[in-house]
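Let us begin with a simple case.
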Amino acid sequence: MYNAIMNSPLSFPSKHGHSQIKICVSGAAETGHCGIDALEKAKELGREIARQGAVLVTGATTGFPLWAAMGVKEEGGISIGFSPAASEREHVEVFKLPLDYMDLIIYTGFGYPGRDILLTRSSDAVICGCGRIGTIHEFTVAFEDGKTIGIFEGPWEMDSELEDIIAKSHRPNTKIAIGSDPKKLVEEVITLVKKYKVAEYKTTKS
């Protein structure tokens, strides 16, 4: 499972794992508007996240994030989900969400809006793919929190909508990468994360 991470030239060597980069993929749970090749694009995005040594974080949902998780697991990577539910039973029976393709699910119990905040704040970066209003919410939380953001361009409307929000935000932001090539986009996102990531805290010996 860890081969892709430990062998990646972009990963941080670390004894404790603090510097392991965590990338959230934000996207729509219902994907009828995403285009016929959205599944493969999402999976390739997930594959690249794993190939480049990062951990995938999602909202533990269906659709675009689940497809990204499938791609991560194809490459032997790590996938973590943040659920809006308070328990596994509520996750499955009330929210009707999957358990597959995730190594760990964190049950927030905060519904979708509260889940979104924990999801983005637990990640080093957020990549937005084909989405709906929930993706816009995760994008704006990440933007306000100063997170690195990737906008994955594809045969969907979300990319241009987010680019329009940025253009009209009247707030410069140097931590945003935009592109349609999953490999290049993940590379740019990781480079930005490394540029701004907090250094390891070291205690002084008395």
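The second case is a distinct protein. As before, the sequence precedes its structure tokens.
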Amino acid sequence: MTASHVLLDAPYVHPTAIVEKNVQLGNGTKIWDNVHIRHSTHIGEECIVGEKTHIAYDVRIGNRVKINAAVYICTAVTIEDGVMISAGTVFTNDRFPRATTPDLLQLRSSDPDETTLATTVRGGATIGAQCTIGCDLEIGRFAMIGMGSVVTRSVPDFHLAFGNPARSVGVVCRCGEAVLRSDKLSEVVTSATCKHCARVYTIDKGVVTETP
């Protein structure tokens, strides 16, 4: 029997978790204690959602995603397959939020509007602990964001980025090992080999591609 034909268990939801109506959970997914998942969110197969995490409505999460404890994922976020989101990470979807109308006499609605901006985390990416992720941006395939970073602009595929604001400081392999360190990737034209798994990458002025 191949991996694609393995029969997965039904999703598990801890008794203390709150899962609202119209939430879809894939087989093999585990929702742990005190998690709150809002309505109309879709979570794929074999995912882990750690304790005290809050996932807003209409969020899209792929297969085999690991979400650690106390993560906040807001509306308009899409997370593709194989992503890791470490503990304490916070996503945002509004650059200039206000609680009320300008006259302070009425609360603003929390429903999405023209100020709600999307964020996408591409397949295989890792977001370190205690990161803050801005909106209207993309974190690329197999990119890695260092712990405590504030991401204010898109991070390309295979880039290693950290800081406040986060900036690219190197190239990271599919396996998670750094293969090149440089704070001027936009000027680099070279190739690099992962010492851990021997995968080879071409770096051409910030664009990182895998070499077959």
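The longest strand covers residues 166-172. Residues 91 and 133 are 5 Å apart (CA to CA).
Keep these points in mind for the review questions at the end of the chapter.
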